[in-house]
Amino acid sequence: MPTTFLTAEWRNLLMANYAVDPAILRPYLPYGTELDDWQGTHYVSMVGFLFEHTRVRGFSVPWHRHFEEVNLRFYVRHRDPTHGWRRGVVFVKEIVPRAMIAAVANTFYGEKYLALPMRHRWQMDGAGPGEMEYGWRIDGEWNHLRAAVESVAVPIAAGSEAEFITEHYWGYTRLGERRTGQYEVVHPRWNAHQVLDYQLHCRVARLYGEVFVEPLREAPRSVFMANGSAVKVMGGERIGY
């Protein structure tokens, strides 16, 4: 039975969701998984958020408790022989500001973390629409996810696209041709803020490869900000051999 590897709070998850040709994603599929879609559309999501009060195996590491993350991810499912379908995500790449964070995630979970200088800005006082930004610097240039958001969060509707995006509770990583890592992320159902305006400035080819340039050049199908919650990331398991 997996034990808890990491606890934290995830806050203000800005999630921009782009339609993508599934042929682009298939080469990234881990063994034992298949692409998941919402009403026939496959998505990649640019996600920016903040880790707070992070602990690894119960321990708090100085200067590594509060930090930003920006990731590009897509959606899969895996049929577990005991528990049935598990819906999860595969990360194309995850950006964090500390090399130790990247090293731990890459070593223990086989993820694709990259350490870059990062920053964030929130201006949300509840009196009106707020502004937020997650930024990362690569090759001397600041990239960003930026949005204006409604101050009031509402429950995510059952059966909605936002539910599909947020209700994937497993992570899958490709460890070999016939071996996959899986881990569970435990958190309650989130509420969401409407996004009024959104901007992406990103060196897509440099970070994610040429195949993602065209999908991320198009307008996203949806953008929202999930308020987040406390989370637990469980220890990893293996699929295949």
**Which CATH architecture is right?**
Beta Barrel
Task: Name the strands of the widest sheet in spatial order.
Answer: 1-3-4-5-11-12-14
Instruction: Average the pLDDT over all residues and give the rounded result.
Output: 94
Q: How many independent structural domains? A: 1
What gap, in angstroms, lies between the N and C termini? Answer: 19 Å
Largest sheet: 7 strands, mixed, barrel
Overall structural class, as computed from helix and strand content, comes to mainly beta
Describe the structure.
The structure is a single chain. The chain is mainly beta. It has a single domain (4-240), classed as Acetoacetate decarboxylase-like (Beta Barrel), CATH 2.40.400. Helices cover 13% and strands 54% of the residues. It has a seven-stranded mixed beta barrel with strand order 1-3-4-5-11-12-14. The longest helix has 11 residues, at 99-109.
What's this, in brief?
This protein is mainly β and 241 residues long. 13% of the residues lie in helices and 54% in strands.
